[in-house]
Amino acid sequence: MATWSAPGKIFLFGEHAVVYGKPGIAMAIKPRVFVTVRKSRVAHHAKSPYIDSCFDMMGVRGSVYVNSQLASSSGLGSSAAVTVATLSAINDEFGKKHRPEEIADMAFAIEKKVQKGRASPTDTTVSTFGGLVLITGTKRRRLPPQNFQLVVGNSLVQHNTARMVEQVASFRQKSPDICNPIIEAIGAISLSAMRHLNDANKLGEYMNMNHALLDALGVGHPQLSRLVLASRAAGAYGAKLTGAGGGGCMIAICPKHLKSRVAGAIEACDARAFSTSIDTEGVRKEKDA
Ligand code: MEV
Known about the structure:
Elements: E1 2-13, E2 24-39, H1 49-58, E3 62-68, H2 78-93, H3 100-114, H4 122-129, E4 132-136, E5 139-143, E6 150-154, H5 161-174, H6 176-194, H7 200-217, H8 222-233, E7 238-242, E8 249-253, H9 259-267, E9 272-276, E10 284-286
Antiparallel strand pairs: 1-2, 1-10, 2-3, 2-4, 4-5, 6-8, 6-9, 7-8
Helix pairs in contact: 1-2, 1-3, 2-3, 2-4, 3-4, 5-6, 6-7, 8-9
The chain binds (R)-mevalonate (MEV).
The site of (R)-mevalonate (MEV) has 13 residues, from helix 4 and helix 5.
C-alpha cells in the first residue's frame, strides 16, 4: 500500500491564455489530495477517467482510495492533483521508478486526453513540483516563492473545465480578430506581473485587468463577478476568477489585516471562502495509515 498527496493550485494570472502558448503564473496552495493505491487483481476505485488513465498508462491494476480536501470542479486543480498523486502512488506501490519530471509529463498527457486535446501543463506541473511557476507553452520555470496574502472564494457554481476551454476555442475560431488580442493581453499581464511579484498593490491591479479580460473571453459568471466586486469593496488590492471560469473559484490579494474582512464579504454573497498561502512542496509520500 502506498499513499501520496499532491497540492491544489490557483492561477494568479493567465488561465486560458496558457492553452495558446501565452505565459501564465500559477501557485500551489495548501489543500491537498491524498491517494492510497494497493496492488490487487480487481480494480476498486471510483469511476474517474483520470484514475483509469493512470492505471492504463502504468500498465497495472490496483485499488485506489482518494481523500480530497480540495473541492472538485472548482478550478483549484483537483483533477491534476488526483492524477499526479495517483501516478506517484502507483509508481511507488509497483516499484516503477519514474522520476517526478516523468510523472508530470504523464499527468499532463492524461489531462490532455480527458480534456480532448486542449490543456496546458500548468496544473500538473504545479501539483508535481509545488511553489510558484511561470508556464509558457510546454516550458516551466520556477519563480521565487512569495508570501502572498490570498483569499479564495468558491462560488459553489459547478463548471466544467473541458467545456470552458472548448468555448474559448470556438470564440477564437469564429472571431479571431477579437479573441486573439484578448489572449495576447492576458499573456502581457502575466509578464508584467512577473516583474512586480513583491508589489501586492500592483498585482491587485493586474488581477483586476485579468478578470475583465476573462469576462471578455466569455468565461465569467455573474456570481464570480459578485464575489470579485465584494472583495474589492472590502479592501482587497485586486481580485479575479481563477481556473477555467464559468463557475468555480475566484481569488483576492489583500493586505494581511483585511483577509478576514474580505473572506466575510465573500461569504455574505452565499459563497465559501478560505485564506491560503503558497505550498512550496509538490507531490509527496505520506505515512500509510
Ligand atoms: C484550468 O484550470 C485552466 C485553463 O487554462 C486550462 C488549462 O490550463 O489546462 C482554462
